[in-house]
Design a protein that fits this description.
Layout: H1 5-16, E1 22-24, H2 26-32, E2 41-44, H3 48-54, E3 58-59, E4 66-70, E5 80-85, E6 87-89, E7 101-103, H4 107-112, E8 122-124, H5 143-148, E9 151-152, H6 158-164, H7 167-179, E10 182-183, H8 185-194, H9 203-214, H10 219-228, H11 232-235, H12 255-268, H13 273-281, H14 286-289, H15 302-316, H16 321-333, H17 345-355, H18 360-373, H19 382-395, H20 408-415, H21 421-436, H22 443-453, H23 458-487
Parallel strand pairs: 2-5, 9-10
Antiparallel strand pairs: 1-2, 1-8, 3-4, 4-5, 6-7
Length: about 500
């Protein structure tokens, strides 16, 4: 891996001015793991005002020593590079920001304030990294060892780290999820002790960490970890209502386990965030709707209850309105009924209107996740394949004169005639030509053909009309056959 030229340029400018420059934080961790860094952060002993003198095109709008340097790069990740002065932080009265920041000249002081050892390493900035970069890394808190052992461990005193910023509790769970690491025992104990402080954290910050967990390949493990650490109650408390709650003859798992397995399927299929969340929350209303126990217990209208609960849950976490609407809509309609031979074309059309054409694909994905989460082997059984066929079938307008760029009014106006069967015959004659060559379906051309076709007798027009009806029927039959083949029905 090579260091981007924008980073090298910043480092060179700092060095020429007599200052140190290190890569720090997550980018060092990612480089060691041979992953492309999401961000490139630089730490230096230069004070913010000194950084601004070196880089005229820069922004300093905070009290924490971080200057944003504009590079003009075409790479979104490198358009602005954040350079932070080495600092020591005071007490965190609000569980988020330090009350006091003291600038220092020692990189070790700066690394000591960071959250986890795997994020508390510094790497000198050179043009081409050696094969064994570990020898060049400044690692005062043994982050390399924890990285090799796949361990999330707080820097120095874990209780102090989480008392400073309770969001680090969520970050610990998120890193463990994303990297598939385990949390070190003392760090874990401190998380359990300070988890209640998540109540003091802005919901938007918790939401952002949750989104990263859900979008991780190990999302199911992440939700389980939140519960094991006593964190889930501060993030998605309603989801916990399904823990240990048995279902009926259609399910072999508890509601909570079924929800996690549904999420896991959606993740493995690389579905969108909205589909993943809907898969996780689709049965959140079941515990409150449950009636009876055992084999024949029921959960009537749990989809309505669940949709209302999801609105509350997602709004509490400050999700955007459109995201909430999408997820709750999928939850509301995930129990749609379809049985081959029982639902007519008109019923399928009403289903499409009710759900919205734009939501059909995602709704079927949630149904797949629901099925696999129930322990069945097939995500898309014959019923769903047949529904897909029916949806595609009814989404195609019937091949009729309605598809033409002209109508009966155009014919009467052009020919100056009154309503009568001849108008229908002319329309079908036009349709026959368009079925043979769709490019002819242009208003100017058809208006010209109306005059020419009108020269034919009634008998000739009726003969053309009969041929058009046969051709339309054959064309529709071929289309339906192709769609059936597509969905194996």
């Amino acid at each position: 891996m090579k260091i981007p030229k924008e980073i090298l340029s910043v480092k060179e400018a700092l060095s020429e001015a007599g200052f140190e420059a290190y890569l720090v934080g997550g980018c060092v961790r990612d480089i060691i793991l041979n992953r492309e860094p999401k961000d490139w952060d630089i730490a230096t002993d230069a004070r913010p005002e000194e950084i601004q003198k070196i880089f005229e095109d820069s922004v300093y709008e905070n009290d924490f020593g971080t200057v944003g340097v504009k590079t003009g790069s075409e790479n979104e990740k490198l358009k602005i590079i954040e350079i932070t002065t080495y600092r020591i932080e005071g007490k965190y009265s609000d569980n988020r920001h330090p009350d006091e920041v003291i600038f220092t000249k020692k990189i070790k002081d700066d690394l000591a304030r960071r959250d986890f050892t795997i994020n508390a390493m510094a790497l000198p900035i050179i043009s081409e990294l050696p094969k064994n970069i570990e020898t060049d890394i400044f690692d005062p808190f043994d982050g390399l060892t924890d990285l090799k052992n796949k361990t999330i461990k707080a820097v120095l005193d874990p209780e102090k780290r989480f008392a400073e910023d309770a969001l680090r509790i969520m970050r610990a769970a998120r890193f463990a999820t994303e990297l598939d690491f385990e949390i070190e025992l003392n760090t874990r104990r401190a998380i359990e002790k300070y988890s209640k402080d998540l109540n003091n954290i802005a919901k938007e910050r918790i939401r952002d960490e949750l989104v990263k967990i859900i979008m991780s390949p190990n999302a199911m493990k992440g939700i389980l970890l939140l519960e094991d650490l006593g964190i889930l109650v501060y993030v998605l408390p309603e989801l916990r209502e399904g823990i240990g709650v048995a279902q009926n003859k259609h399910h072999i798992f508890t509601i909570f386990d079924h929800s996690l397995k549904s999420l896991d399927y959606a993740v493995k299929q690389n579905y969108s965030f909205e589909v993943r969340m809907a898969s996780l929350l689709h049965d959140v209303g079941k515990p409150r709707s449950k009636r009876g126990e055992g084999y024949n217990s029921t959960f009537y209208q749990h989809e309505y209850i669940g949709a209302r609960m999801a609105i509350t849950m997602l709004d509490r976490l400050r999700f955007p309105k459109e995201t909430i609407e999408k997820i709750t809509h999928l939850i509301r309609y995930h129990m749609f009924y379809y049985n081959v031979g029982e639902i007519s074309d008109a019923g399928v059309r009403r289903f499409i209107v009710r759900v919205g054409p734009e939501n059909i694909d995602d709704l079927l994905k949630v149904r797949e996740a629901d099925r696999i989460g129930s322990g069945v082997k097939k995500a898309i059984p014959y019923k769903l394949r047949h529904l897909l066929f029916m949806i595609e079938k009814v989404k195609h307008d019937p091949l009729s004169p309605k598809m033409l760029k002209v109508n009966g009014d155009d014919i009467m106006k052009t020919l100056k005639i009154n309503p009568g069967p001849r108008i229908g015959w002319i329309l079908n004659a036009l349709l026959e030509e368009v079925l043979d060559d769709p490019k002819k379906n242009e208003k100017e051309f058809l208006l010209k053909r109306i005059k020419e076709i009108n020269l034919l007798s009634d008998d000739e027009l009726m003969e053309i009309d009969a041929r058009a009806r046969v051709k339309k029927s054959e064309f529709e039959a071929e289309e339906v056959s192709n769609m059936k083949d597509k969905y194996f029905v």
